[in-house]
Recover the amino acids of this structure.
């Protein structure tokens, strides 16, 4: 019967169709398998990488401030006049790890308590020190003022990848810690030998030469400079200065160096008042009294 | 049965990949060129690619490595990244290329990869910076090289012997690229401690 024959043909067709579908299916399965393993591997690699990063980040010590240098318990080193009228550093302990600075007690004693925030790598600070360091030292020596110097590092970006700002201010911390009586001499020498911005600045050997040139030859200081022993503290102290709204001059957009604070008032360099006038106006004691 | 390979399918994934990566690379090179102009006009110019001491491009642009052939590197990218865009657009339009063309394209990309590897080394180990636009160039050059190289191997451009290897490795392009990225990230981390400087 024709119908039966047709059915036979149809059967053959159906079998062929089924085989074709099976082949298609197999092909799809192969393709899936071909791409599945690499895709799963990618996800696995990414998951492992993310896991490592996460483990690394979560194992970082919580943002703790590093131990500070001795004689800088306030984040700065304080100078007063001794009985013979010499400018001498006030010895203090160090800020312990994870500790916070202890501000200097600013007594209302008629003296000008001058606090400066300087970056050893900042040209403006160099200019400031060149112009006023002698006069300020004279006031301190006369016993009518005290000077507290806070080194801060805000200019790393200006010295290529050398981090000269942090490294040069670490020098201040090293000297404050190990040879506080040489601090001012070293600071002035660092300003006098300040490299140009936009360069890599001085390398460790050059910095050590400057320190030696200032009359401080001390192996421990040299090692402290090379090891950047106090760079973590420099960073913490800088962050603290940047976060302090009381250090911003009225007409300044933010924290700048040099910042000069006298008895709690910030000197505004744009005010037209000379900094020495600003300091003098806050002295009520007479020389010799303090 | 119209799925036999008598009619070669237009490789639109490859085409779009070439256009997008070539475009991103070109954009990065163009931005670096503009930043270079800004630095030439004013060496103290505040570039918007300078985010921190670590993430900046000023140091890279000012270095001798930034003009190793005597002229600023981004100019190479400005010309070079036109190639993948042009090839991609042509493929999208149904063009086919001779074997020698694919080999030349591949040689160009191999040169680009070699240059990028050198630049990565200089940036991470010598300059100590991660320059955002430069990293975009690294990011696109690595897969560009792998995708085109494996495509050429698969299509028998390098002889039939490599054709099987090409087709086996094709699905592995993404993991290969990811591993390359991770190697660069690892080098940057070991040398520059990126993670700590970001947190």
């Amino acid at each position: 019967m024709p119908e039966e024959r047709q059915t036979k043909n149809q059967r053959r067709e159906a079998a062929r169709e089924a085989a074709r579908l099976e082949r298609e299916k197999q092909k799809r399965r192969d393709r899936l398998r071909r791409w599945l393993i690499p895709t799963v591997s990618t996800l696995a690699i990414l998951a492992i990488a993310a896991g490592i990063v996460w483990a690394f980040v979560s194992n970082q010590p919580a943002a703790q401030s590093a131990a500070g240098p001795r004689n800088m318990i306030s984040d700065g080193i304080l100078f007063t006049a001794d009985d013979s009228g010499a400018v001498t550093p006030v010895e203090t302990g160090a800020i312990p790890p994870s500790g916070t600075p202890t501000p200097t007690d600013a007594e209302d004693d008629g003296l000008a308590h001058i606090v400066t925030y300087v970056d050893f790598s900042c040209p403006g600070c160099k200019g400031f020190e060149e112009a006023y360091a002698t006069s300020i030292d004279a006031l301190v020596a006369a016993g009518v003022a005290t000077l507290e110097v806070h080194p801060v590092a805000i200019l790393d970006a200006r010295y290529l990848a050398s981090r000269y700002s942090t490294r040069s201010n670490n020098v201040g911390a090293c000297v404050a810690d190990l040879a506080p009586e040489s601090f001012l001499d070293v600071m002035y020498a660092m300003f006098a030998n300040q490299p140009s911005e936009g360069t890599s600045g001085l390398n460790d050997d050059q910095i050590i030469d400057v320190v030696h040139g200032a009359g401080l030859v001390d192996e421990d200081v040299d090692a402290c400079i090379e090891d950047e022993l106090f760079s973590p503290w420099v960073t913490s102290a800088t962050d603290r200065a940047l976060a302090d709204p009381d250090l911003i001059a009225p007409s300044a957009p933010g924290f700048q160096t040099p910042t000069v604070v006298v008895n709690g008032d910030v000197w505004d360099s744009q005010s037209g008042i000379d900094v020495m006038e600003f300091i003098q106006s806050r002295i009520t004691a007479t020389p010799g009294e303090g | 049965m119209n799925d036999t390979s008598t009619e070669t399918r237009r490789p639109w994934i490859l085409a779009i990949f070439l256009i997008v990566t070539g475009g991103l690379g070109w954009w990065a090179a163009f931005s670096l060129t503009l930043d270079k102009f800004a630095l030439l006009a004013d060496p103290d110019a505040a570039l918007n690619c300078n985010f921190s001491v670590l993430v900046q491009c000023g140091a890279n642009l000012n270095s001798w490595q930034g003009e190793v052939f005597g002229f600023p590197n981004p100019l190479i990218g400005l010309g070079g990244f036109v190639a993948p865009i042009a090839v991609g657009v042509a493929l999208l339009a149904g063009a086919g290329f001779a074997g020698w063309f694919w080999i030349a394209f591949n040689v160009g990309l191999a040169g680009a990869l070699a240059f990028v590897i050198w630049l990565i080394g200089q940036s991470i180990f010598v300059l100590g910076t991660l320059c955002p636009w430069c990293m975009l160039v690294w990011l696109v050059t690595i897969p560009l090289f792998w995708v085109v190289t494996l495509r050429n191997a698969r299509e028998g451009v390098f002889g039939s012997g490599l054709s099987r290897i090409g087709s086996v490795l094709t699905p592995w392009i993404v993991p290969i690229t990811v591993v390359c990225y991770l190697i660069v990230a690892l080098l940057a981390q070991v040398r520059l401690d990126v993670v700590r400087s970001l947190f």
Strands of chain A lie at 77-81, 87-89, 112-118, 145-151, 259-262, 265-266.
